[in-house]
Amino acid sequence: MADVLAVTTRLSIALHRTGDYQSGWETARAAGDLTEHTLGAEHRLVLAVRSRAGRSLFRLSRYASLL
Q1: Residues 28-60 pLDDT 10s
Q2: Exposed (0-12), middle (13-18) or buried (19+): which is 44, by Cβ within 10 Å?
Q3: pTM for the structure as a whole
Q4: Would residue 2 be called left, alpha or beta, if left means φ above 0 and alpha means ψ between -120 and 50 degrees?
Q5: % helix, strand, coil for the chain, step of 5
Q6: Are 66 and 45 in contact (CB under 8 A)?
Q7: What is the pLDDT of residues 1-31, one digit of tens each?
């Protein structure tokens, strides 16, 4: 599961870098939601993908969603 999350995080980063912030956010959010219960909320990869989702929300000007 950790390997899948790592690859999904890299995909989210690639989407973000191309300017597709919505897809980057959706990918990161879904990956975090699906793996959090297996790996735990404090797992470094779960935290990394949550951070990536937050960066995409910031670029989408969805500041209230970050809280």
Answers
A1: 999 999 999 999 999 999 999 999 999 999 999
A2: exposed
A3: 0.87
A4: alpha
A5: 80, 0, 20
A6: no
A7: 999 999 999 999 999 999 999 999 999 999 9
Residue position matching structure tokens 């990869």: 45
Q: Using CB atoms within 10 A of its CB, is residue 15 exposed (0-12), middle (13-18) or buried (19+)?
A: buried
Q: Which amino acid is at 48?
A: A
Structure tokens belonging to residue 13: 């980063």
Cβ–Cβ < 8 Å for 9, 31: yes
